[in-house]
Amino acid sequence: ARLGAAAMEALRAAGRAVLRSPRLARPGLGLRRRRKLPENWADMREPLLEGMCFTLKYLGMTLVEKPKGEDMAAAAIRRIVAMARVGARKFQKVILTVSPRGISLQDAETKELVENISIYRISYCTTDKLQNKVFAYVAQSQESGALECHAFLSPKKKIAQAVTLTVAQAFQMALDLWEATHTGR
């Protein structure tokens, strides 16, 4: 029960951090316009249980000191974008799948699983203010325990925002499912 309570509080804190993300607070991204992101946004609860897929380009990863925060994320994204510009390599195209279980990354060409990130390990996600086509999340590494910020380039600003909002919805659904199983409903 103690681990369950800690996991639930971590999930709540992560959900609050995602919902406080500056991209979600911008005028024009309120509930009225939400349906304009993906066409099926209004019916997302069912598809989200299975997983919503987005095709993005993986820019890279950097270690961070804090689990959440707008300034921390912006600085990490700047470092990742700067490193990505220096390297003259082709970015890996990935299929990022968001569900209440977490985020799954699959190579778009080979369909090989790159990584599965549990929702409990994700502490923050955002769409960058300046690089508005960049979606990033912070998660604790399963191997080292270090905090890693991973950044992805989307084809459009609205897709980056849709990924961020979908992760926020996944946090809420995971919390709802957790509470339902722990209150006997």
From TrEMBL:
Superkingdom of the organism of origin: Eukaryota
A Pfam family that the UniProt record links to this protein: PID
Gene: Ldlrap1_1
This protein's name: ARH protein
InterPro entries: Adapter_Engulfment-Domain, PH-like_dom_sf, PTB/PI_dom
PANTHER family in the record: PHOSPHOTYROSINE INTERACTION DOMAIN-CONTAINING FAMILY MEMBER, PID DOMAIN-CONTAINING PROTEIN
Taxonomic placement: Eukaryota, Metazoa, Chordata, Craniata, Vertebrata
Species this protein is from: Crypturellus undulatus
Sequence ranges assigned to domain PID in this UniProt record: 51-176
